[in-house]
Each structure stands twice: as structure tokens, then as C-alpha cells.
């Protein structure tokens, strides 16, 4: 079944900190946001204040020429065959393309193995044959810190018909369980609670 929760406004902002490595902080925060989103009465739970990651493909111009392709041809092939979910957007440059994806987990290895071109004799050209794939920060200038510690912010909204106090109590139960599960310096700090 599908449940659509209408937005009722901001419920809480929660700072996640104590994980020094940005990728680990982002992964942990996204996992926590997904768990909170699964709660009844929560209409949105998203990670802010930290750069997300995206794949960047640096094309080998010689390889593109050898196969008679342009970077636009590769982007079109990716959009047509590759991702389980549609691409959010694509940026083209002279020698690189940035792929933003939403809602789909794909590894670098999976992306490198995508078939871009196939001929009638069964010959295949994979993305790895045309360039290098790297996972990079979408905006390296987007950072949040609290008391000198790198921080991600969870923005949690409740459904319009949901009781703020009950929904926050369910969110807080998850936060308490996470605090008990991980030692210091890991911290979850409620920086705004509109149910008070």
C-alpha cells in the first residue's frame, strides 16, 4: 500500500555529529533520516548542511573519438539504459559530466560496467572504456559545524493531521536508541523542537 502524508510543517532539527569522515557522516545521517521517515506521522526527513555525493565521469577524448561518440551521446545512453531511477540532472562540460541520482543506490563499479554502445556483432563499449568514474562531493563548500565538530542536520517534518507531541516522541525514541548504540563522540542534538 502507498501512504501519502501531507506536509504539516517542521517538527524538529537534529544535529548529527561525532563522525569525522564526511562520507561516513552523510551515510549515517541518511540511514537515520530513512528510519525516521518510516515513522507514522512523519512526512519528510532529509539531510541538510552537508554536501551530498555524486558520480563524476571524466571522459577520455581519444576514446570518445575512437568510438565516434560525444559526451552528449554518452549522457543520452546513460539516461536511456542505465539507472534504476531517472537522473535528477546532468551537467555537461568539455571533458566531464556530473550525474546526480536520487533514490537509487549504485556503486561506482556498477556504473563503470554500464553498456553505452553495442554493435550488431556483439561488441560492447562500457562506460569504463570511455573514461574514469569518481564519487565526489556535490558542493565542497557546503559544511556545518557545531562546537568545532562536522555536523549534518536532519530536517524532520510531520504530516498535517499528525499530533506533534506523539510524532516527536517516536522520533526521540529512535534518537535515544542511536545514542545508546554508539559511544562518544557520536552525538545527536535536537537543536529545534516545535512540539514543545
Structure explained in plain terms:
With 196 residues, the protein is of the alpha+beta class. The chain has helices at residues 22-37, 61-66, 71-81, 108-112, 164-181; strands at 7-17, 42-48, 53-59, 87-92, 96-101, 115-118, 124-126, 131-137, 144-146, 149-159, 187-193.
H/E element order? EHEEHHEEHEEEEEHE
pLDDT < 50 stretches: 1-6, 84-91, 93-98, 100-104
Taking the sheet with the most strands, its summary is: 5 strands, antiparallel
Oligomer: single chain
Helix content: 25-40%
Let me know the average pLDDT.
79
Number of strands: 11
- Tell me the β content: 35-45%
Number of helices: 5
Rg value? 21 Å
Q: Key features?
A:
11 strands; elongated; alpha+beta; 4-stranded antiparallel β-sheet; 5-stranded antiparallel β-sheet; disordered N terminus; 5 helices; 196 residues; single chain
Structure, briefly:
With 196 residues, this protein is of the alpha+beta class.
Give the SSE map.
Elements: E1 7-17, H1 22-37, E2 42-48, E3 53-59, H2 61-66, H3 71-81, E4 87-92, E5 96-101, H4 108-112, E6 115-118, E7 124-126, E8 131-137, E9 144-146, E10 149-159, H5 164-181, E11 187-193
Antiparallel strand pairs: 1-10, 1-11, 2-10, 3-5, 3-8, 4-5, 6-7, 9-10
Amino acid at each position: 500500500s502507498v501512504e501519502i502524508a501531507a506536509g504539516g510543517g517542521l517538527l524538529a532539527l537534529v544535529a548529527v555529529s561525532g563522525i569525522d569522515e564526511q562520507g561516513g557522516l552523510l551515510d549515517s545521517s541518511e540511514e537515520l533520516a530513512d528510519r525516521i521517515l518510516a515513522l507514522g506521522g512523519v512526512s519528510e526527513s532529509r539531510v541538510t548542511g552537508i554536501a551530498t555525493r555524486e558520480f563524476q565521469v571524466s571522459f577520455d577524448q581519444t576514446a570518445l573519438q575512437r568510438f565516434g561518440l560525444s559526451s552528449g551521446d554518452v549522457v543520452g545512453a546513460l539516461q536511456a539504459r542505465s539507472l534504476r531511477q531517472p537522473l535528477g540532472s546532468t551537467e555537461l562540460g568539455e571533458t566531464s559530466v556530473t550525474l546526480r541520482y536520487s533514490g537509487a543506490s549504485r556503486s561506482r563499479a556498477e556504473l563503470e560496467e554500464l553498456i553505452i554502445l553495442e554493435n550488431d556483432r556483439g561488441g560492447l563499449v562500457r562506460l569504463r572504456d570511455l573514461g574514469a568514474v569518481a564519487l565526489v562531493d556535490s558542493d565542497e563548500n557546503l559544511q556545518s559545524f557545531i562546537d568545532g565538530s562536522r555536523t549534518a542536520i536532519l530536517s524532520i517534518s510531520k504530516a498535517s493531521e499528525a499530533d506533534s507531541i506523539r510524532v516527536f516522541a517516536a522520533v526521540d525514541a529512535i534518537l535515544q536508541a542511536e545514542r545508546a548504540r554508539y559511544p562518544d563522540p557520536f552525538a545527536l542534538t535536537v537543536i529545534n523542537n516545535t512540539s514543545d
